[in-house]
């Protein structure tokens, strides 16, 4: 079954990453673009993760995972090698009604990490529902080259128009025209 594309607001959402290795680091780097309310739990952490913890003033717990450690968290990322423990943690998340992503177990994932582009307020997510992560990655690279670096300035201008112009068809037509013209400039390399 395919994943439904949705953007989650992380305000007031507590994230727990269980794991301290390379995969946990990859997930952490992605999540830091959207929130800093992240706690990491692992017996051992790589130097890079410890540096990210310090740089971003993150909470961390240095110990083995125990039943109940997920209590109070809204989103759980399980990035450990022990597949059996991943499954147990996923089953436990059902009791606490939190979202879970077990990196090696698609059947134990309420959500996945898509390939994505983030430039200011613009976020584009790309997923093949696990069919071809390589395709999703290469499409992301392709789209990143097309989208100009000044896209956030354009979005700020559009936001200001929305704030200052009265709602209605005229505003809708104006904003649509602005967006269309801006995107058309990409093909002409006018930006």
Features:
alpha/beta; 191 residues; 7 strands; two-stranded antiparallel ribbon; 42% helix; elongated
**Overall pLDDT level:** 93
Q: Give the termini separation.
A: 40 Å
Main sheet specs: 5 strands, parallel
Shape: elongated
Query: How helix-rich are the residues, as a percent range?
Result: 40-55%
Number of strands: 7
- Rounded to the nearest angstrom, the radius of gyration is 20 Å
* Structure annotation, total helices: 6
Describe this protein's structure:
- By secondary structure, this protein is an alpha/beta fold.
- It is built from six helices and seven strands, in the order βαβαββαβββααα.
- The chain has helices at residues 22-32, 47-55, 83-96, 133-146, 151-164, 169-187; strands at 15-18, 38-42, 59-62, 75-78, 99-102, 115-119, 122-126.
- α5 packs antiparallel against α6.
């Amino acid at each position: 079954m395919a994943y439904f594309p949705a953007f989650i607001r992380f305000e007031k959402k507590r994230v727990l990453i269980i794991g301290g290795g390379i995969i946990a680091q990859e997930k952490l780097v992605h999540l830091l673009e959207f929130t800093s309310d992240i706690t990491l739990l692992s017996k051992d952490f790589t130097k890079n993760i410890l540096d990210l913890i310090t740089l971003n003033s993150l909470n961390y717990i240095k110990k083995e995972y125990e039943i109940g450690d997920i209590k109070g968290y809204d989103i759980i990322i399980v990035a450990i090698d022990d597949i059996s423990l991943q499954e147990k943690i996923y089953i436990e998340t059902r009791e606490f009604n939190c979202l879970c992503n077990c990196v090696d177990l698609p059947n134990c994932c309420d959500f996945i990490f898509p390939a994505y582009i983030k430039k200011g307020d613009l976020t584009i997510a790309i997923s093949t529902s696990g069919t071809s992560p390589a395709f999703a990655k290469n499409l992301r690279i392709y789209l990143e080259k097309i989208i100009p670096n000044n896209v956030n300035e354009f979005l700020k201008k559009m936001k200001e128009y929305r704030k200052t112009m009265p709602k209605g068809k005229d505003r809708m037509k104006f904003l649509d025209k602005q967006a269309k013209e801006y995107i058309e400039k990409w093909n002409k390399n006018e930006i």
